[in-house]
Amino acid sequence: MTFALDSLPKDYREIQSEFSSYKLSSRILTPFVKIEAIDGTYQPQLGAFIIKAGKKSFFPAISNHHNWIFDGKTLKPLPHDIADEIKATILNKPNLGFSEVIELYRFGIEGFQLHFDESIFDKANHSSLEMSLGKAITGLNANLYPYQESGIAWMANSLNNYGGLILADEMGLGKTIQIIALILHKGFDNSKPILIACPTTLIANWAREIEKFAPSLTYLVHRGYGRTGFYKDLLRANITITTYDTLVNDLTMFRGIDWGYFICDEAQALKNPESMRRIAAGEISTEFTIPVTGTPMENSLVDLWSLSDLAVPGLLGSKEEFESAFPDNEDSAMQLSHYIDPLILKRQVADVASDLPERSDIDLPIDMDSSSVEEYEKIRQEAEDNYGRAGALVAVSHLSVFCAHPSLRIKDPESQDWEDTVDVSLNTNNNLITQKVELCIDLLKEAKANKKKVLIFSIYNACGPILQKICNENGIKFGYWDYINGSTPQEDRQKIVDKFTNFDEPSVLVLNPKAAGAGLNITAATVVIHFTQNWNPALEMQASARAHRRGQTLPVLVYRLYYKGTVEETMIERSKWKREMGDLAVPLSSRESDDMNNALKISPLGV
Predict the structure, then answer these.
(1) Closest Cα partner for 169 from 354, 332, 353?
(2) Same domain, 88 and 235
(3) How many C-beta atoms lie closer than 10 Å to residue 206's C-beta?
(4) Which parts of 190-296 fold into alpha helices (H)?
(5) 76 φ, ψ to 5°?
């Protein structure tokens, strides 16, 4: 006699006499709930594990409301009230969201043992390797690299599975084109346009990339004094591109629209949960939010919470709950990595773009002369005495400025943008030629002789004119020498890059990494010189990627000039550590406190 499964009683106590051909085991099995990913959903399944011939296998119940399982001709019972207990929990739902899965994994459910399919927590970098688009993307005017295709396929799958994601590929791998291709591939509702927020410096780049790669998409730029004050005007195009500051100022208007996608480019600008930018971004009504950044975490684990909560709201609880559960230490970082690695695609150029030409990173340590050592020690001691450990960053800033050039002074150390106030002191007897300047001039001289184009990165704008003046005075003249920094109008930046690129002779472009370290493609340059070092390793990494990226056909030399035994050496070590983290979305330590202490203690005297 056979029975349809849906006709079987849910309670094993009601079927003892009905199934005379089945043996009812007297042993009550330990109930398990298995969570597995099936067709883009997470399904909880009640059952039990049974060991046979040394192999442990999961046997599911007929449903989550049956308190027994089939094992061949044997009916094996679970606790008789298990189905009623499931009704009172989240497990009563047929499908779970990723946030609910994380909640179950972190906190469990009293009375149940949970088993999670390993594929649920597969790292994005790994799972993306198995994915492909299968067909060309309609409307995309570009030939994609294989890793870009797998990235787009992974993103489409992740939006279905998780409801959001973070695209954190290294600079140079084409994050912008991947986002554009994703929108075309996945499609969007015309009644739900796309919002792209980014720094001012990237507005022109997004506009240019959309025109070039997706000419069927319409866009408008919403910024400046002439922008509209009516939200319906933003519905005239498929895509609205705006800046983070405009997002804050016009938040009421942006909140009046249901957006299909909200793309947050250079999303590290949103790492501070208390900032007005981050608060505004969290209030946008959107189906999908995608933070795009090469650095999902810069200083602390809270950076990561801020971005992941934008991508998948509620994933890790409130900020207060997160900070309580995940203090900034190695154990927390390892635990957190397990939860969010499936959400963050963070690939490196060296891993996926093997056809790129060689890049050589060359660190050039410099010994300070005795008079500079004496002055450095004086500044270090004064900074430590005046600011102490509580004001370590201010103290480090003064030391960093001196390492850039002894003629530089901070005009307004209390300013939030104090780096922009650094200038040459009018009352100085310092010789403009320092050991670092001399080494940089030698590199420029060599580049000119070899007919190469050079990018010089300096966080302090005054360094560029010093170098140009000394080059000219020593007969090392370049046909083209220009600057891009915070004072360069946004609309002029790409024009400067184009002139630099098209100039037929050796050229120099001096860039401030805060203004030109992202969004610009400058593959005409094959020599990169970091004249000053950065406390934030991400700035240096992004800056170097301006030259070593898709489109580069020649080997690239990247030089880092730094004084031994100074704060710059600590910065170099931070940069090395950042690179060693590779594709880890969550570095095992933020190192902030240790590095700050070391920066104040390290001395060119070696004591």
Answers:
(1) 353
(2) no
(3) 21
(4) 203-213, 244-249, 251-255, 276-282
(5) -115, 120
Least confidently predicted of 69-73, 130-134, 437-441, 481-485: 69-73
* Extended strands (E) in 213-372: 219-222, 239-243, 259-265, 286-292, 344-345, 359-366
> How far is C-alpha 543 from the geometric centre of its chain's CA atoms?
15
Last residue of a domain, one of 97, 119, 141: 119
Q: How far is CA 43 from the centre of its chain?
A: 30
Who's near 30: CB < 8 A, 6+ residues apart? 48, 49, 113
What is the residue range of 107's domain? 5-119
Report d(CA 7, CA 559) in Å as an integer.
75
Q: What is the pLDDT of residues 243-257, one digit of tens each?
A: 999 999 999 999 999
Q: Do residues 522 and 497 touch, judged by C-beta distance below 8 A?
A: yes
Average pLDDT over residues 101-120: 87
Mean pLDDT of all residues in 582-586 = 57
Would the pTM of this model clear 0.90, i.e. be above it?
A: no
DSSP 470-506: HHHHTT---SEEEEESTTS-HHHHHHHHHHHHH-SS-
492 pLDDT band, cuts 50/70/90, is confident
Structural domain count, the chain: 3
324, 392: one domain: no
| Alpha-carbon separation of residue 581 from 195, 297, 568 (angstroms) | 32, 12, 20
Examine the fold and report which residue of 81, 96, 119 is the final residue of a domain before the chain moves on.
119
Phi-psi region at 31: left, alpha or beta (left = phi > 0; alpha = psi -120 to 50): beta
Average pLDDT of the chain? 84
pLDDT at 109: 85
Identify whether 25 is part of a domain: yes
Q: Read off the pLDDT of each residue in 65-81 and give the average, rounded to a whole number.
A: 86
In a domain, 225, yes or no: yes
Apex 213 CA angle, 210 and 219, nearest 5: 20
Which DSSP letter does residue 173 get? S
Q: Which residues contact 384 (CB under 8 A, 6 or more apart)?
A: 395, 600
- In the block, residue with structure tokens 């800056």: 543
What is the pLDDT at residue 427? 47
| Residues 485, 337 within the same domain | no
* DSSP calls for 21-51: TSEEPSSPPPPEEEEEEETTEEEEEEEEEEE
Task: Clarify whether residues 146 and 108 are in a common domain.
Answer: no
120 strand-pairing partners: none
Q: Which residue has the tokens 């995309």?
A: 140
pLDDT band of residue 53 (cuts 50, 70, 90) is: confident
Encoded amino acid at 473, one letter = E
pLDDT at 1: 43
Which residues are paired to 330 by β-bridges? Answer: none
Q: Is 290 exposed, middle or buried (0-12, 13-18, 19+ CB in 10 A)?
A: buried
Is the same domain home to 80 and 164? no
